[in-house]
Write a structure and sequence with these properties.
Helix content is 47%, strand content 13%. The chain has 282 residues and is an alpha/beta fold. The chain folds into two domains: 177 residues, 3-Layer(aba) Sandwich (Rossmann fold); 88 residues, N-(1-d-carboxylethyl)-l-norvaline Dehydrogenase, domain 2, CATH 1.10.1040.10. Bound molecules: nicotinamide-adenine-dinucleotide. Nicotinamide-adenine-dinucleotide binds next to helix 1, helix 4 and helix 10. The site of nicotinamide-adenine-dinucleotide has 29 residues, from helix 1, helix 4 and helix 10.
Length: 282
């Protein structure tokens, strides 16, 4: 697999296209919004510089990485893609119809990597018309600096699709772990509950945002606390993911905290909007 398509140029699409372009792959990055694509180019340029400081062995150059990424609002530019990573909003009303369209445009051999936080891969595959070539590729944020990708085998995903996907991820410099399909997979079934419970603690006045996170960082050795993690993921995405988990398991244990709902409705989505549980310069 050589030609990479990335759909959705938000938090994840920016990182995934950066990762593959830095690995030498030609990338077509598609979003519905021109301004989002322009912002993506600016952030990729900044991030290549930033991550080079974190990894002195990296010699990626911003201009070189950007030169491998075609930015477009035209989904038909995926007509030559071998592997597409879809990173659009965690909302079935957005993702479902997109797969029908992608199936019409992309070559028959093309594999669809679903980058979702919680939606079952088998459900997506039911819409894509090529169920054996649909696979979960749960990249972590920020994708270029996280070493591991959670790969999800859907009900119909073929062994060849798993092998090809792991190979292309490996050629982009990342390792992968394969898990079976279940809403939220391994990582987010646990992580979303933890984040939600931390928000409930804040809402109940049990502790402050800073102290909740400090306890996880200094007592448990986590790199980030659950509230800063939620801000990094995007509070809208956390809310969508909890709703998906609650809906699929029909279990109230995933019921989103009222404070989370309030912040999302107020437009405080975390790092990407400059304010969530903490504030950020954007
Ligand atoms: N944020 C995270 O930490 C994280 C981690 C792993 C997986 N995910 C998953 O990745 C996906 C994307 O999350 P995100 O945080 O990047 O969301 P985001 O809201 O930052 O970005 C979504 C992007 O999709 C675009 N979009 C919407 N409909 C589209 C369409 N039909 N065609 C093309 N582009 C379209 C939007 O314009 C937006 O730029 C979600 O399913 C999410 O659950 C998120």
């Amino acid at each position: 697999m050589k030609n990479i398509g990335v759909v959705g140029a938000g938090t994840m699409g920016i990182g995934v296209s950066h990762l593959f372009a830095a690995g030498g792959f030609p990338v077509v990055l598609v979003d519905v919004d021109e301004a989002t694509l322009e912002r993506a180019a600016r952030l990729i340029e900044r991030n290549v510089r930033l991550y080079r400081m974190l990894d002195p062995a990296s010699n990626a150059q911003p201009a070189e990485v950007l030169s491998r990424i075609e930015l477009t609002t035209d989904l038909k530019r995926l007509a030559d893609a071998d592997f597409v990573v879809e990173n659009v909003t965690e909302d079935w009303a957005v993702k479902g119809p997109l797969y029908v369209e992608m199936d019409r445009i992309c070559p028959e051999h093309c594999v669809f990597g679903v980058n979702t936080s919680a939606i079952p891969i088998t459900k997506v595959a039911g819409h894509a018309g090529r169920a054996d070539r649909v696979i979960g590729t749960h990249f972590m944020n920020p994708a270029p600096i996280k070493p591991l990708v959670e790969v999800i085998r859907g009900y119909h995903t073929s062994d060849a699709t798993i092998a090809g996907t792991r190979d292309v991820i490996s050629r982009a410099g990342k390792d992968s772990v394969v898990v079976n399909d279940s809403p939220g997979f391994v990582t987010n079934r646990v992580a979303m509950m933890t984040v939600n419970e931390a928000i409930c603690l804040l809402d109940e006045g049990v502790s402050t945002a800073a102290d909740i996170d400090r306890l996880f960082v200094e007592c448990f050795g986590h790199k980030m606390g659950p509230l800063a993690t939620a801000d990094l993921i995007g509070l809208d995405t956390v809310l969508y993911s909890l709703e998906v988990l609650q809906d699929h398991f029909r279990d109230q244990k995933f019921r989103p905290s009222q404070l989370l709902c309030k912040l999302v409705y107020a437009g405080h989505h975390g790092v990407k909007t400059g304010r969530g549980f903490f504030t950020y310069n954007i």
